């Protein structure tokens, strides 16, 4: 039986907030509320959500810094609450910001310290430190104090520290936050390279283009609950606006337009004069084609003179493009313009509680994980490494 790299079942975390002045009262604050999740080995998984949605709480539970109030979470089959000593050597932790490094030490000495926490043999740690320093572009400043580093250099050192012991699972909590675009692009390229090393990466981010580019699947969490779990393409399909293909030609015969409407995944086809903007058509569901130019009457052409424009709306994104062009073969098509929905469109619709654009929203919320589990690399004792990496000084897991 395949063991998920990361899993959560009924995961719940409740904080107690003290309110009032002289007479205080305790109020429960639910950060996570019954989270069900599985991440396959080797998968890059993204967690999206607004501030306060529960993203960092989930990561802290998974990396053994916090205990869940109820439910169960496991990494590589090890329970994060009961088997923390087995979990910690098998995970890497990268938090955004500047905590978790020792500023009066050099970058190289920081990495030596964390290698010692993981009880890496000196010969292995020297080789690994050299590899990471070169890989992350820190060679020129590796022996300078961290307090002299730029924010981008500190974040690169954070990543090196998090994977110094070559863990099979890496948790990254907003690793590119506050970085300039050039440095952020370099770090995204490095994160993408972890997939080639068959690492499982659990990434939280507010940058939706980052999630779309890096992640095999993403989850949207809001108010402590997972609202959707799917591939970025599936989320856009379910909650984004339809993709639009605009086609211009001197003429578009009615039979060709009707053929476009019969293509699986096409919602509707609208005919208008070239240069006009078509009306916003409502979706009827994937594969439910509507008659061409329905606003004018099925098959009705605009007045003579000039090119005509057909707007094809697709729930399958641009996957229908080959069929569209085949349906127009032999016509003198002069212009084709496309527009695809973005992950941002889908995300905003989910967190604003708007209905799914088409299909059954439960399909996207049910995204289970599959794949083969690789055996976890055995680390050392490394019991203090997770707390030190998080800058918690030992951390209160209650």
State the main characteristics.
four-stranded antiparallel beta sheet, disordered C terminus, six-stranded mixed beta sheet, 13 helices, 2 domains, alpha/beta, Rossmann fold, 398 residues, Alpha-Beta Plaits, single chain
For the record, the CATH class of the largest domain is: Alpha Beta
The tally of beta strands, per DSSP, is 14
Instruction: Please tell me how large the radius of gyration is.
Output: 26 Å
Find the CATH topology of the largest domain.
Answer: Rossmann fold
Rounded to the nearest angstrom, the distance between the terminal CA atoms is: 33 Å
Low-pLDDT parts are 277-305, 358-384, 386-396
Assembly status: single chain
* Percentage of residues in DSSP E strands: 15-25%
Number of helices: 13
Spatially, the strands of the biggest sheet line up as: 6-7-8-3-9-10
Provide structural commentary.
Residues 277-305, 358-384 and 386-396 have low confidence and may be disordered. The chain has two domains: 6-237 and 365-389, P-loop containing nucleotide triphosphate hydrolases (Rossmann fold, 3-Layer(aba) Sandwich); 242-340, ACT domain (Alpha-Beta Plaits), CATH 3.30.70. A hairpin with a 5-residue loop joins strand 1 (6-19) and strand 2 (25-39). It has helices spanning 55-62, 84-87, 107-117, 122-135, 151-162, 181-196, 208-214, 232-239, 254-261, 321-327, 343-351, 361-365, 385-389; strands at 6-19, 25-39, 44-48, 70-75, 78-79, 91-95, 169-173, 200-204, 217-222, 225-230, 243-249, 266-273, 308-314, 335-339. The strands form three sheets. The protein has a six-stranded mixed beta sheet, sandwiched between helices. It is globular, with a radius of gyration of 26 Å. Helix content is 29%, strand content 24%. It has 13 helices and 14 strands. The two termini are 33 Å apart. It has 398 residues and is α/β, with parallel strands linked by helices. Helix 3 (107-117) packs across helix 4.
């Amino acid at each position: 039986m395949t063991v998920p790299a990361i899993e959560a079942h009924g995961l719940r975390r409740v904080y107690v907030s003290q309110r009032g002045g002289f007479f205080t009262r305790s109020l429960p604050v639910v950060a996570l509320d019954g989270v069900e999740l599985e991440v396959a080995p080797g998968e890059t998984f993204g967690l999206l959500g607004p501030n306060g949605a529960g993203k960092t709480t989930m990561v802290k539970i998974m990396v053994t810094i916090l205990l869940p109030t109820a439910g169960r979470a496991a990494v590589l089959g090890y329970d994060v609450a009961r088997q923390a000593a087995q979990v910690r050597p098998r995970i890497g932790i990268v938090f955004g910001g500047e905590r978790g490094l020792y500023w009066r030490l050099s970058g190289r000495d920081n990495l030596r310290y964390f290698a010692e926490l993981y009880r890496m043999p000196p010969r292995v740690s020297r080789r690994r430190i050299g590899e990471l320093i070169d890989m992350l572009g820190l060679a020129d400043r590796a022996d300078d104090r961290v307090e002299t580093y730029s924010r981008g250099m500190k974040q690169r050192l954070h990543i090196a520290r998090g994977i110094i012991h070559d863990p099979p699972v890496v948790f990254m909590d907003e690793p590119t936050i506050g970085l300039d675009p050039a440095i952020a692009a370099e770090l995204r390229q490095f994160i993408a390279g972890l997939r080639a090393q068959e690492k499982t990466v659990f990434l939280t981010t507010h940058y939706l283009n980052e999630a779309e580019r890096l992640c095999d699947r993403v989850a949207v969490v809001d108010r402590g609950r997972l609202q959707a779990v799917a591939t970025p393409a599936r989320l856009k399909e379910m909650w984004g606006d339809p993709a639009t293909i605009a086609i211009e030609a001197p003429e578009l015969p009615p039979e060709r337009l009707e053929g476009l409407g019969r293509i699986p995944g096409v919602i509707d086809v609208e005919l208008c004069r070239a240069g006009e903007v078509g009306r916003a058509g409502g979706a009827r569901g994937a594969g439910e084609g509507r008659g061409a130019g329905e606003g004018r009457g099925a098959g009705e052409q605009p007045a003579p003179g000039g090119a005509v424009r057909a707007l094809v709306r697709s729930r399958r994104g641009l996957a229908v493009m080959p069929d569209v062009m085949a349906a127009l073969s032999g016509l003198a098509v002069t212009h084709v313009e496309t527009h695809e929905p973005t992950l941002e469109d889908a995300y905003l619709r989910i967190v604003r509680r708007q209905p799914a654009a088409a299909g059954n929203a439960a399909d996207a919320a049910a995204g289970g994980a599959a794949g083969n589990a690789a055996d976890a690399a055995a680390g050392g004792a490394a019991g203090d490494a997770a707390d030190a990496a998080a800058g918690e000084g030992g951390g209160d897991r209650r």
